[in-house]
Amino acid sequence: MSTSLTSSSDPDAFCRILASSKSLGILTGAGLSAASGIETYRGVDGQWNHTNPFEVASLRAWNENPDRVWTYSHSRRDACLRASPNAAHDALATLSLLSTRKRLLPSLTDPSKPPLYITQNIDGLCRRAIDSIMKTPEAEEMDADEKKLVHERHIEMHGSMYRVVCTQCKCIKWTEENPLAPIFANDTSTRGDEKIPIDQLPRCGGSSWSGSNRYGRCGGLLRPGVVWFGEVPENQGEIIRHLTKVDVLLVIGTSSLVHPAASYAGTVKKNGGTVAVCNLGPTQIDDHADFVFHGPCEKTIPMLFKRLGQINDAQASA
């Protein structure tokens, strides 16, 4: 996006455009989870202001100090497990329901498909909010294929803290077990520069591994199932393919500094779509967005969805 435009902060104007959307896309970042107690990365008190990401979240760091990477990952994972989805997660999750889509997004070309929901977050809160919605009475009428589609349309492009990958047999496992190794049951911050022996780090088969070399229980070193700096984010082909069809992109809680996600708004704008930014503070794409709403995501998103419903209900009864 090379040219700037005058952005609007008129919620009614945006809601009218959103109501006419034929294909909605959603992109979320760390700011979405701030109200859940998850520390952001690049904000005023962000992680990367006091921690070098290349020392705890890169392939080089893993090869040189897997114990340091796991110590950092455990602390983040522990925080994620203790957190709960906030009002913004919950509002976005309601779009998983056909009844909500019909009310809020009546112009969708295919209302049977939930919006494309991309998150850069690895905290799993978006998915947990969706899982909770899938347990409500409104979701009881959905069949297995419809529920599967909901999860397929939700893309965790940077992986998940709840996924681990064996570096030996390549087994991928989803788990909320905590801690993943006995060593992390204690406060590792008191160890200082003392290294954790590699055989005490999380391993394939768990701490009870007894010498088996079977797939999924081979005893190999596990790595966090997240995308580190220098690695390629997941599902990029699928994301770009879907973005070419998106006519409204809602960018929520991200500073839009990290590529490739930072380029998604430009892709939608290039194809004639509308971009709306919802973030606590200014972002890199504010000057190029059609709508900008500054404020806490947990207040802005529910407010927009509530107003969208009111506008659509008024039009339906007119």
TrEMBL record:
Annotated residues for binding of Zn(2+): C166, C171, C204, C218
Domain Deacetylase sirtuin-type residue range list: 4-311
GO MF term list: histone deacetylase activity, NAD-dependent; metal ion binding; NAD+ binding
Active-site residues annotated for this sequence: H158 (proton acceptor)
Subcellular localization, as worded in the UniProt entry: Mitochondrion
GO CC terms, sorted: mitochondrion; nucleus
Residue ranges that the Swiss-Prot or TrEMBL entry lists as coiled coil: none
Assigned keywords, A-Z: Metal-binding, Mitochondrion, NAD, Transferase, Zinc
InterPro entries per the UniProt record, alphabetical: DHS-like_NAD/FAD-binding_dom, NAD-dep_sirtuin_deacylases, Sirtuin, Sirtuin_cat_small_dom_sf, Ssirtuin_cat_dom
Main location: mitochondrion
Keyword Transferase in annotation: yes
Statement: the UniProt record of this protein carries the keyword NAD: yes
PROSITE patterns noted in UniProt: SIRTUIN
Top-level taxon in the UniProt lineage: Eukaryota
Family in the record: Belongs to the sirtuin family. Class I subfamily.
PANTHER family xref list: NAD-DEPENDENT PROTEIN DEACYLASE SIRTUIN-5, MITOCHONDRIAL-RELATED
Protein's name in the database: Sirtuin
